[in-house]
Design goal:
nine-stranded parallel β-sheet, TIM Barrel, 11 helices, 9 strands
């Protein structure tokens, strides 16, 4: 069972990543926002710091908001991380959730309403850009999908290995993953809902002539003796994503390592090849240790 954990929003990400590697977890992950509902450090710099202090674990975007950036810049950042880390990047890509609003998009000069088509346009050229192949780009601003003539193909050097792509974030994610043959990165789904999504993913992928993509499921975790008021606050936060309170509670992974092991096993049985824990308690190092113990118990 492959299980990773998200990097904390504060503290030393390099030290945390090294601790995660030492205790045997699979990967570290970070979300990506310019302006979000809570303070957020730059995702590429967080993962570069984690790369510098580790040698084995995966380095995951969970997820990169691709259309916020000119696609060539995004490709350069990903390619650089591949070189720095020895090809350990796991490239989750999303469109940005409604809960975070449009302020970051306005700051970047990108229309919020166009984020879906711009993401599709960027995904169509991203692999060649990362690989260092000559690539045609449209758009005077450098954002893929803008109108305008850029005067011929561009080539980024040095090229790098294209990392695995996982499509997450938003109602179109499952359909986009099936159409493009990439992995799926759902967040905060209880096992039953995840299983239903995996079945739909398999059907849609087959219709496009693709095998069923792999699934990396992000879950909210609060292990050990987490105060009730902290759990309740996390449930309220999850309802902002459109789920009911009952579903939000079902989506949490709580309790001791044995109970968490059962939940991890249920998520794996539902179709998750990798699970990413997003701790909502303050003790991130301890949460990582309890999660690693749950992985050992789950086998």
């Amino acid at each position: 069972m492959r299980v990773g954990i998200t990097l904390p929003a504060t503290g030393n990400p390099g030290a945390f990543a090294r601790h995660v590697e030492d205790i045997g977890l699979d990967s570290v992950w970070t979300g990506d926002h310019l302006i979000a509902v809570a303070p957020k450090l730059d995702s590429t710099l967080l993962l570069a710091t984690a790369a510098a202090t580790t040698t084995r674990i995966g380095l995951g975007f969970g997820v990169l908001i691709l259309a916020l950036r000119p696609v060539a810049w995004a490709a350069k950042q990903v390619a650089t991380l591949q070189h720095l880390s020895g090809d350990r990047v796991l490239l989750g890509i999303g469109t940005g959730g409604e809960v975070h609003g449009d302020e970051g998009w306005r700051a970047a000069g990108v229309p919020f309403a166009e984020r879906g088509p711009r993401t599709d346009a960027a995904l169509s050229v991203l692999p060649d850009l990362i690989a260092g192949k000559p690539t045609e780009l449209d758009g005077d601003s450098g954002h893929s999908g803008d109108s305008g003539d850029r005067g011929g193909p561009v080539r980024l050097a040095p090229g790098a290995t294209m990392p695995p792509v996982l499509i997450g974030d938003g109602p179109q994610a499952l359909r986009r993953a099936a159409r493009l043959g990439h992995g799926w990165y759902p967040a905060f789904l209880p096992p039953a809902a995840l299983a239903a999504g995996v079945r739909e993913l398999a059907e849609r992928a087959e219709a496009h002539g693709h095998p069923t993509p792999g699934v990396t499921a992000q879950v909210s975790v609060g292990l050990g003796d987490v105060p009730t008021e902290v759990v309740d606050a996390q449930v309220r936060g999850l309802t902002a994503y459109g789920m009911s309170e009952a579903v939000a509670r079902l989506s949490l992974v709580t309790g001791g390592p044995a109970a968490a092991a059962d939940r991890l096993a249920a998520l794996a049985a539902a179709g998750a090849e990798r699970i990413v824990g997003l701790p909502f308690a303050d003790d991130n190092h301890r949460q990582a240790e309890l999660l690693a113990e749950a992985v050992r118990l789950a086998g």
